[in-house]
Amino acid sequence: MKLKKNSLIIKIWKYLIIFSIFILAFLWLFQIVFLNTFYEKSKTKELNNIVKTINKEYQNNTLINTINDISTNNDICLELVEGSSYIYNNPYNRNCLDKKEAALYKQKFIISGQKTQTYKLINPRFNNRTLVVALKLDNNLYAYSSISLQPLDSTINILKNQLIITTIILLILSFIISFFVSKKLSNPIIKISKMANSLSKVEKTNFEIDEDIDEINELVNTLNDVSIELNKTEELRRELMANVGHDLKTPLTMIKAYAEMVRDLTYKNKEKRDSNLNTIIEETDKLNLLVNDIIELSKLQTNNIELNYEQFDLNELIKETIHRFNYLEELEGYQIIYNNQSNIMIYADKKRLEQVIYNLLNNAINYTGEDKKVYINVSLNNNKYKIEIIDTGKGINKKDINLIWEKYYKVDKNYSRNKIGTGIGLSIVKNILTKHNLEFGVTSKLGNGSNFWFKISKKESK
Ligand code: ADP
């Protein structure tokens, strides 16, 4: 595997190394550089606390009884001096300074007249540093407590050696761990990205990984959904191509055939010629309708349309739309039964709503039953109009009922000539009603016809 600069392995490795370096730097600082300072600080604090106790005991007049305990329990050198005579001392304590050495700082302290003072001296007896706190208890009464500071050089050396080993081990470990961690993380990603390649070729892909990482599992689930959706779309696209191809080809064949007929045979006979030409015009209209539908849907779906809201009477619009189907009523005996309402004032895009009603009515006529009846009902409830377009046809299957709104979807895929459908009509309806933010739906039972409805507020204004 070739490693790139920005690969997960390099990134994780880099961060882990930086993290380890930080930890090591802190360890070095606290263990080696500041060890002496920490040590002295803690010893000074310890000694100061003892001196505080001494002072307290003196104030309570109990110092004489407790001084020996204080000295031995804390393992310090303690001297209580009045004038030039010792009231208490433990000269054999290893923390005690040489008498001569001690005399010097004691004199200094007495002259300074201060209440308390801390000194750091070298004890020539053991050649080590000694910490002394001098305390003036009374006019002529002084307490001196001292403790020797251990040389830390050898400790520091041991720690240093340990730290060097720790550093090396930590760096090697972080290298190995980061390699495995990043491999574990990047493997499924690499696998997924390889699988995703086939997505672009619209192949059915089933994403699966062995690792159990929540975020990656989510990605896998999403990609599986995408794959299913893509396949569905692809299937629909193929179907549409077949349908549209068929829809385009039939009228074109007819147009060509009739045009040839006019040219070669019927051009002299006015009656026959006109009839042929009419067929050509009808077929051209069908083509036009189909192409318009496709253009309309693509416009709606790419959000290229703005709604032109206006207030208008839906009653008029429904009547006008019904009027457009007059020819079917006259020629083929269809009946559109409308429970005429007066004044249905609403606020919407009139042209788009006409499209909705036209498409729904067109479907209802196409799919209605033997009685050739279609009903339009408008009712008012809670200030909302419910517009229903009802047919008496064979209804829609439960499994298809949610899918019919999708573009290119047709329940009956077998092409039947008298029902010119592209599977686009309801998709346009859905798009327009959704853009208007309107409630809509369909209720249908097999064998019992369908009821396509939508609701719109009375005189709604935005
Ligand atoms: P089409 O142009 O095929 O009618 P639509 O998008 O208008 O396309 O409708 C999609 C599918 O929904 C139709 O092919 C048809 O199977 C079904 N459908 C629509 N309206 C009705 C209805 N009133 N009764 C039964 N099925 C319908």
Q: How many structural domains in the coordinates?
A: 4
The spatial strand order of the largest sheet comes to 2-1-5-4-3
What level of helicity do the residues show?
55-70%
* Secondary-structure element order, N to C: HHHEEHEEEHHHEHHEEHEEHHEE
Category by helix and strand content: alpha+beta
Number of helices: 12
Largest sheet data: 5 strands, antiparallel
How would you describe this protein?
The protein has helices spanning 8-33, 35-59, 63-74, 99-112, 153-200, 214-264, 270-301, 314-324, 326-332, 350-367, 398-401, 425-435, and strands spanning 77-82, 85-89, 116-123, 128-136, 141-149, 309-313, 335-338, 345-349, 373-381, 384-391, 439-444, 450-457. The protein is built from 12 helices and 12 strands. It has a 5-stranded antiparallel beta sheet, with helices on both faces. It has a 5-stranded mixed beta sheet with strand order 7-9-10-12-11. By secondary structure, it is α+β, with helices and mostly antiparallel strands. β1 and β2 form a beta hairpin. The protein folds into 4 domains: 8-33 and 155-197; 35-151, Beta-Lactamase; 214-301, Signal transduction histidine kinase, dimerisation/phosphotransfer (DHp) domain (Helix Hairpins, Orthogonal Bundle); 309-457, Histidine kinase-like ATPase, C-terminal domain (Heat Shock Protein 90). The longest helix has 51 residues, at 214-264. The chain binds adenosine-5'-diphosphate.
